[in-house]
Amino acid sequence: MAPAPRSYASADEDNARWQSFRFRPGDIVISTRSKHGTTWVQMICALLVFGSPELPEPLGCLSPWVDRLTEPQEALFARLDEQRHRRFLKTHTPLDGLPIEPGVTYIVVARHPLDAAVSLYHQAANIDRARLRQLVGLPEPEMPAPPRPALHDWLVEWIEDDPAPSESLDSLPGVMWHLTDAWARRAEPNIVLVRYDDLQADLAGTMRELACRLGFAVDEAAWPALVDAASFSQMSANAEALLPDRNGILRDPAAFFRRGTSGAASEVLSAAERARYEERVRQLAPAGVVDWLHGM
């Protein structure tokens, strides 16, 4: 008997929702850490499902974030029950917190943790916290939030911070927990691992590999338009239609697609600080995971 899924919950997410979700054969679950390429892979799945850059609804409607508490579970599940296309669903829950169904494919996307951390830092400033609290029913804080440190200082602290992964999934230990668990399952036929750097280096080739793993047959003549629609420039240009923000939580939708490139942390960290990151990450995960993640 498989172990019960691990519990992951926060003020605005709860993976317990998955326990009562009714899967269908063919469902696709996109499991990522924050800012690891979630929306990018959702868009690729949408293009493969519909075979066209013209999507019938905004991406956030087609591929909802199941764990997030900003939409009541009953309403969300009713919308998903009504979908007649092959469903592709978003979660930030690691695989050990999800029901693993044999007819469902699980895609885990990995990005260099330092690049994801830089994106996470900028994303935090773009979230309307008051709106988020309103949606999930949280009271106003008694004290104002302290001022945020500069990016460099925040990154150095992020590298050293050592919370339990289940308590802080976007910490470095949380990121490596998520990816290590997925790496351990990589031989299972319904687990697909994708690297953000591979999407950057060879978007067309990586999309073709995903289509093959997911069982999509795409007309060869349609490929150029699909690849173009999945490019960072096109997604950034169509930000408002693609964003996973149906409730006005983002202050500036265009800022969601901020940069999309790798190496931003190297611009602010010293060589010694980058070496400390390497030391920390190899303490947190097996060498095979780290070498794969770093493209070694």
Q: How is this structure best described in words?
A:
This protein has helices at residues 38-50, 59-62, 73-82, 113-124, 129-136, 151-160, 172-184, 196-201, 203-214, 223-229, 232-237, 239-242, 271-284, 287-293, and strands at 28-32, 88-91, 105-110, 191-195. It has 296 residues and is α/β, with parallel strands linked by helices. The protein has a four-stranded parallel sheet, sandwiched between helices.
Number of strands: 4
Mind telling me the CATH superfamily name?
P-loop containing nucleotide triphosphate hydrolases
Structural class: alpha/beta
Number of domains: 1
Q: How much strand?
A: 5-15%
Layout: helices, strands, pairs:
Layout: E1 28-32, H1 38-50, H2 59-62, H3 73-82, E2 88-91, E3 105-110, H4 113-124, H5 129-136, H6 151-160, H7 172-184, E4 191-195, H8 196-201, H9 203-214, H10 223-229, H11 232-237, H12 239-242, H13 271-284, H14 287-293
Parallel strand pairs: 1-2, 1-3, 3-4
